[in-house]
Amino acid sequence: MKKLAGFVSAFLALALAAGCAMMNPAAEGWETLIDGNSGLENFNRIGDANWRAEGGTVMADKGAGGYLVTKKSYKDFQIRAEFWADHTTNSGIFIRAQNPSAITATSSYEVNIFDQRPDPKYGTGAIVDFAAVVPMPKAGGKWNTYEVTAKGPQLVVVFNGVQTVNISNEQFKEGPFALQYAPGANNIPGGAIKWRKVQIRPI
User: Fold this and answer.
1) Distance from C-alpha of 72 to C-alpha of 143, rounded to nearest angstrom
2) Among 71, 111, 159, 176, which is most exposed with the fewest C-beta within 10 angstroms?
3) What is the distance between the alpha carbons of residues 174 and 74, in angstroms, rounded to a whole number?
4) What's the pLDDT band for 186 if we cut at 50, 70, 90?
5) Rounded (10°) CA dihedral 160, 185, 56, 25
6) Residue 16 lies in a domain
7) CA–CA distance, 16 with 33 (Å, rounded to integer)
């Protein structure tokens, strides 16, 4: 009977530990960079965008365009992000940026958020100029999730639970990542981008 009780106690302890690990992202190696209103201190700001903490998010909705750039550089990693976009939003996650003071789609991989992009094959769900998506999914007017994995040359993007990109490309191997706010199509003011949670872990 004592052996059985000991077995049950050990099993319950293991189950509790596993449950705690599932509830604690840090136990799985996740670093939380944005969590509701907190996280601006984890980024450098470049450009002209009115980044601020508001309504349980880190957001921007005015300016000529700007970025939040991580203070750390990352090589192989996974990103999980929760965001809200307007129908006119032009935003994205720029990974492995080669020049953290001048973020562009030609010096990083831009995982796009742009429902009204003039060339829709590189709009929301795509990696601009590297991986097209047809038909383009839409992010506007709702909460969305991105899961981005970069492991060596392999790049995988999952938008709202659906894989939109799976390519191999060796052009950019390491660098910080950036969150964008930019003007909309035809340079009209872009809609708001709101980041509710952004996490990253090395792999």
Assistant:
1) 27
2) 71
3) 6
4) confident
5) 40
6) no
7) 27
What's the CA gap between 170 and 162, in Å, rounded?
24
SS3 (DSSP) at 21: helix
| Amino acid identity, position 39 | G
Which CATH number do you get for residue 79? 2.60.120.560
Q: How many domains does the structure of the chain reveal?
A: 1
Least confident of 1-10, 59-68, 116-125: 1-10
Question: Residue 7 domain-assigned?
Answer: no
Give CA torsion, residues 30, 33, 35, 39, to 10 deg: 160
The predicted-structure confidence for 44-99, as pLDDT tens digits, reads as follows: 999 999 999 999 999 999 999 999 999 999 999 999 999 999 999 999 999 999 99
Any domain includes 8: no
| C-alpha to C-alpha distance for 76 and 74, rounded to whole angstroms | 6
Residue with tokens 């981008």: 193
Number of residues assigned to the chain: 203
Q: Which of 1-5, 10-14, 70-74 has the highest mean pLDDT?
A: 70-74
Enter the pTM of the model: 0.87
Side-chain-side CA neighbours of residue 121 (13 Å): 5
Tokens 């990693």, residue located: 77
Q: Residue 189 belongs to what domain range? A: 31-202
- The contacts of residue 108 (CB under 8 Å, 6+ apart) are 94, 95, 96, 97, 98, 172, 175, 177, 178
